[in-house]
Automatic annotation (TrEMBL):
One Pfam family this sequence matches: Glyco_transf_N
Class of enzymatic activity (EC top level): transferase
E.C. numbers: 2.4.1.-
Domain Glycosyltransferase N-terminal: 65-299
Family: Belongs to the UDP-glycosyltransferase family.
Organism: Nelumbo nucifera (Sacred lotus)
Gene3D superfamilies: Glycogen Phosphorylase B (3.40.50.2000)
GO-annotated molecular function: zeatin O-beta-D-xylosyltransferase activity
Protein name, entry field: Glycosyltransferase
GO biological process, one term: cytokinin metabolic process
Keywords from the UniProt entry: Glycosyltransferase, Transferase
Length: 525
C-alpha cells in the first residue's frame, strides 16, 4: 500500500509505478514510444530480455513466462472494456486468451472500435459452449429499466466454469504463471483458479471508482472513522431501482466468491477520478490488495479510422458535412429500450431544439444478438419526422460506431444513459454529457459527471425515474448543452479533461505508468 505521501504528491504514484516497471527487467520488454499512443504499441526486445524467453522447470521442460486469460461478462459494455484491455496487454508481447461463448466473442469482435482484433498478435479467442438459454425481447414498459430479459444469458454464463477450468489447467502446464483477469460478475466461473499453484486472479471493475467507493463504504456501514475519508461535497443516493431483485442476488453471489483475487484493475485514470482511486487505495477499502487504474482502455485517438478494414459508417459521412462541435449524439446504449410514448417525446424535443443531432434508435440487445427474432419491434416516430429533420437530424437504426462518432470534430455533446463505457469514451474524446440515467451504476455516474467533474448536465433526476421525460425537458437540455454559455463552459471543461485523460495514456502518462507497473508485476520472476 502507498504511503501517505501518495495522497499529497500527484507525481509520487507515477514514480512508484515507473520504478516497479523497471525493477524486474529480466522479463520486461522495452517499449518503443516512437509511435502515436493510439496505435498498438510497437515493442522492441533485446535478445536477452525477450518476454518470450522460456523458463525451464526441474525436468528441463520449457515454459512460457506468463499467459493472461481475460473473462468478460456477457453484456456489450463489459465485453468491450475487457477486449480493449486484452489488446493493451497483448501489445507487451504477452499471449492473451479472451474467453466467452461463441456468440459473445463474435459480438465483441464485430462491434469493437478503433482497431482490428483479428490482426492483433498474441490475442486468442476461445469459443466455449453454453447450454441453451431463453432469448426474450426487452420490455420497454418495465417499471425498473434494468434489462431483466438478459437474466437467462447471465445465468447461462455460470456454465463457463468447467471449460474455463480445463483451459486454465492446460495453460498452467506450459506457462510459468497464468494470470486470470475477470469481470467482477464472473467470479463464479473463474473460482477454480485457486487450485493451480502457478495461477493468480485479478478482478476487473468495469464501473467507476466513484461507484465502487460508495458501494464499499455502504457495505461497511458508512463508517466515518478508521481512516475512511469520504469527502463531504460528494453527492450520494441509494441504489433503489437500479437493479431487479434477481440480478441483485446474482451480484451478491459473485462478490461472495471474490476473496481469491490478489489485485484490482479499473477502467479509469487519475485525471478523472484521482481522489476516488486514492480512497480505494486505503487498506480498509482495498483489503490491502494492489490496485491499478489503467484507463481509459479505449483507443484515445482515431487518426487511422479511414483505413479501417470495415466500410465507413454512413453517419460519419453525414458528420463530415456538419460544423465544428455542432452535433448532439443521442444514444442509450445496448441495454435500454424506450417506450413508444418516450420515443415520441424525445423526437419532438430534439426537433424543437433546432440543434443538429444523430440519434441511434434501436432496441436493447437480446442475450444472443445473432439469433433469429420471431417478432422484432418496430419503433415509430411521429409522422413525417425523418423528412422534416433531414439535413439537421439523422436517425440510425442499426449498430453505430460510437467511439468514432464521439471522436469526430462535428460532435459537440452526448445525450446518454451514462453507462461507464459511454462515460469513459465521451470524456476521453472531450465531449460533454447530457445525463439521463436508466439503471445499474448510471445514476452514480451521472453524479460524477455533473456534480464532481462538472462536464455535463442532468436531463432527468433519478428520483423522478418513473416519470415520462417531456419534450420540453428534452428541448431545454439539448439547447442548454449545445447552444448556451453554460454549455460552452461544459464543453471547454470536457475538452480540457479529455486532453488530460488522453495524455495519461501517452509517454510519461500516469495510466501508461500504471499499466507498465501491472505488466511488470505479473511478469515478475
Amino acid at each position: 500500500m502507498d504511503s501517505p505521501r501518495a495522497y499529497k504528491d500527484p507525481n509520487y504514484k507515477h514514480q512508484i509505478c515507473r520504478a516497479e516497471a523497471n525493477k524486474n527487467n529480466s522479463n520486461y520488454p522495452f517499449i518503443d514510444r516512437s509511435m502515436d499512443h493510439h496505435d498498438v504499441f510497437h515493442l522492441s526486445y533485446p535478445r536477452r530480455l525477450h518476454p518470450h524467453r522460456h523458463f525451464a522447470d526441474q525436468n528441463g521442460f520449457k515454459q512460457a513466462p506468463v499467459m493472461v486469460v481475460t473473462v468478460p461478462f456477457p453484456a456489450q459494455g463489459h465485453l468491450n472494456q475487457l477486449l480493449h484491455l486484452s489488446r493493451l496487454i497483448s501489445a507487451y508481447g504477452i499471449p492473451v486468451h479472451y474467453v466467452a461463448s461463441a456468440t459473445h466473442n463474435r459480438q465483441a469482435k464485430h462491434r469493437v472500435h478503433g482497431w482490428d482484433p483479428l490482426s492483433t498478435p498474441n490475442l486468442h479467442f476461445h469459443d466455449f459452449p453454453l447450454p441453451p438459454f431463453l432469448n426474450p425481447p426487452p420490455n420497454p414498459h418495465a417499471p425498473i429499466k434494468f434489462p431483466a430479459h438478459l437474466q437467462p444469458t447471465f445465468d447461462a454464463s455460470l456454465h463457463l466454469r468447467e471449460p474455463l477450468a480445463q483451459l486454465l489447467d492446460s495453460l498452467s502446464a506450459i506457462a510459468y504463471r497464468v494470470v486470470v483477469i475477470h469481470d467482477t460478475l464472473m467470479a463464479y466461473a473463474v473460482q477454480d483458479v485457486v487450485a493451480l499453484p502457478n495461477a493468480e486472479a485479478y478482478a476487473f471493475h468495469p464501473v467507476s471508482a466513484f461507484a465502487i467507493v460508495f458501494h464499499l463504504w455502504e457495505s461497511l456501514g458508512r463508517p466515518t472513522d478508521e481512516g475512511i475519508l469520504i469527502p463531504n461535497d460528494v453527492p450520494h443516493h441509494s441504489l433503489e431501482g437500479c437493479f431487479t431483485g434477481e440480478f441483485a442476488k446474482f451480484i451478491a453471489r459473485q462478490y461472495d466468491l471474490m476473496n481469491f483475487d490478489v489485485g484490482d484493475l479499473y477502467n479509469t485514470c487519475r485525471a478523472m477520478e484521482g481522489r476516488f482511486v486514492d480512497l480505494l487505495d486505503q487498506e480498509k477499502l482495498s483489503g490491502n490488495k494492489r490496485i491499478w487504474a489503467v484507463g481509459p482502455l479505449n483507443p484515445v485517438v482515431l487518426g487511422a479510422a479511414r483505413e479501417s478494414p470495415w466500410r465507413r459508417h454512413k453517419c460519419l459521412e453525414w458528420l463530415d458535412k456538419q460544423p465544428l462541435r455542432s452535433v448532439l449524439y443521442v444514444s442509450f446504449g445496448t441495454m435500454t429500450s424506450l417506450s413508444d410514448d418516450q420515443i415520441f417525446e424525445l423526437a419532438v424535443g430534439l426537433e424543437r431544439s433546432k440543434q443538429r443531432f444523430i440519434w441511434v434508435l434501436r432496441e436493447a440487445d437480446r442475450g444472443d444478438i445473432y439469433a433469429e427474432e420471431e417478432e422484432a419491434r418496430v419503433t415509430q416516430l411521429p409522422k413525417g419526422y425523418e423528412e422534416r429533420v433531414e439535413g439537421v437530424g439523422l436517425i440510425v437504426r442499426d449498430w453505430a460506431p460510437q467511439l468514432e462518432i464521439l471522436a469526430h470534430r462535428a460532435t459537440g455533446g452526448f445525450l446518454s444513459h451514462c453507462g461507464w463505457n459511454s462515460c469513459v469514451e465521451s470524456i476521453s474524446m472531450g465531449v460533454p454529457i447530457a445525463a439521463w440515467p436508466m439503471h445499474s451504476d448510471q445514476p452514480r455516474n451521472t453524479m460524477l459527471v455533473t456534480q464532481v467533474l462538472r462536464v455535463g448536465l442532468v436531463v432527468r433526476e433519478w428520483a423522478r425515474r418513473h416519470e415520462l421525460v417531456s419534450s420540453d425537458a428534452v428541448e431545454d437540455a439539448a439547447r442548454k448543452l449545445m447552444a448556451s454559455e453554460e454549455g460552452d463552459d461544459m464543453r471547454k471543461k470536457a475538452e480540457m479533461l479529455g486532453g488530460a485523460v488522453r495524455d495519461s495514456m501517452s509517454e510519461g502518462g500516469i495510466s501508461r505508468a500504471e499499466l507498465d507497473s501491472f505488466v511488470a508485476h505479473i511478469s515478475r520472476v
